[in-house]
Amino acid sequence: MWRWLAIVGLMVLFLPVNGQDKTSDPKGDKEHAEQNIEKCVPTPITVNCGESNLVQKQAAAKETDGTKDQPEGYFHTLISPNNLPNLLLFLAGIVGIGIAIATLRTIKRQVDTFVSKERARITVATEPLNPNGEAGSQIVYDKSPMLLPRNAIWNVDIHIANSGETNAFIGAAFCKACIKESNWNARDEIVTSQIGLPKVMRPTEKPLQHRERVEMDRKTATAIAEGSLRLWVIGRIEFGDVFGNHWTLKFCRQWGGTWFGGQWQFASVWKDYEPQTPGSFKMNGEFRIKRPSLPRQLVRRMRKKDPQAPVIEIT
Asked: Which position has the higher pLDDT, 88 or 235?
């Protein structure tokens, strides 16, 4: 027992002395702190050039990855390598459409050329005029007081033929010979005198003759000789061809005869008349009558016009 008491007593005396030595010595504490600071100072690292370049490349790669995360523009995406096959297919489609349109236009031109060559064509030829009129009705212009014979007539003869390669299916046909002023506007004239033509005119048939008669007196003949009046022939012929097209032939001609040297000159000359008013419709030529297209009908409806009115195409 005494042995254990002695051991406990020694421990009580020894521990406080040692603890006071360690805690009460400031110098020892300072040295201990300096040792700890030295341990915490980082050791210098030496990096060679190769490792430095590698670090820079890695940093640049990170920056590039950062920029890739941003959304790209539409044009950049369109021409990107991933979209190149689609772009090429799109361009090939456009080229194909262009080739198809050019081919269709070429075919249409060939068909139009064939139709223009083979279709029916009605022609009207005006024969030379005989100013002396029919036998027994001679008109003499010499400014003498001699009276004219009765029933003086001038005959205007026209020849109508099919100069095409296929049959012509005749519709309405009108013609009129008249005497009007030299500045007469033929557009205002209404022609109701019909021409007796067959329903079908073949290209191998001889031209058909039609005659229009004009009553003449001395006063009228004098006015024509002086140029204040003119002799006119005007008309139109409607026909169709074997290709399903509808046409109208219009003609308006002025006799070019004049009095000179005691007799009529240029008796065989017939001039095509065209009005001098800007924008006036032509009085001579062939006109194709077409059915209006659907877009044209819609436009006419919006303008409150007849949507089924035919379209006139000048050829």
From this structure: 235
Residues 251 and 283: their CA atoms lie apart, in Å, by: 6
Q: Look at residues 265, 240, 242 and name the one whose alpha carbon lies nearest to residue 255.
A: 265
Q: Is the pLDDT of residue 111 over 80?
A: yes
Q: Let me know if residue 67 belongs to a domain.
A: no
Give the strand pairing for 153-162 and 122-126: antiparallel
Please indicate, yes or no, if residue 7 is contained in any of the structural domains.
no
Q: How many CB atoms lie within 10 A of CB 56?
A: 10
Count: domains in the chain: 1
Residue 94 has a pLDDT of 92
Q: Locate tokens 């991933």: which residue?
A: 82
Q: Is the pLDDT of residue 36 over 70?
A: no
Residue 74 lies in a domain: no
Residue 101 within a domain: no
Give the residue numbers spanning the domain of 198: 115-289
